[in-house]
Design goal:
The chain contains seven helices and no strands. The termini are far apart. The chain has two domains: 61 residues, no CATH class; 68 residues, no CATH class. The protein is elongated. With 142 residues, it is mainly alpha-helical.
Length: 142
């Protein structure tokens, strides 16, 4: 506080126009706006990179279909790979949906009609979220 008071007294008395002669132009740096835009752009790219890394990590550690983590399946050798490539292969689900899209509505079976209705409503409850055959088998055993 003392420093501020001394500065104002020294500059205000010494300068002919008062303290206003010592103040800088408030407009600032001409490149300040560019730096702000760069910082915002950089910040959003960092956010996008973090989101992409999170999605990549989730794809490597969780089943896309059932959402069960690889720690459950890796109790057996190649358990998670076997699960994601054979039991819950994403391509099989996509092929089934494409099959339903190309099939006439009047020819759907009961299960196909159920999945087709859910697909049209954009309701994904027909995916076995949190469940798989291995879990069902273990539940039956013990």
């Amino acid at each position: 506080m003392l420093t501020c008071y001394l500065f104002h007294m020294y500059v205000g008395v010494r300068a002919g126009g008062g303290i206003g002669d010592e103040l800088e132009d408030p407009a600032g740096d001409p490149y300040e706006l560019y730096r702000i835009m760069f910082d915002i752009t950089f910040f959003f790219f960092v956010i996008l990179r973090d989101q992409q890394e999170q999605v990549k990590e989730d794809m490597e550690t969780k089943c896309f279909i059932c959402g069960i983590g690889n720690d459950y399946f890796d109790r057996t050798p190649h358990g998670f790979e076997t699960h994601t490539l054979q039991e819950h292969n994403l391509a099989n689900y996509l092929f089934f949906l494409m099959y339903l899209i190309n099939k006439d509505d009047t020819e759907h079976t009961g299960q196909e009609s159920y999945v087709w209705k859910m697909y049209q409503e954009r309701c994904w409850d027909f995916f076995p979220t949190g469940d798989c055959f291995r879990k069902q088998y273990e539940d039956q055993l013990g």
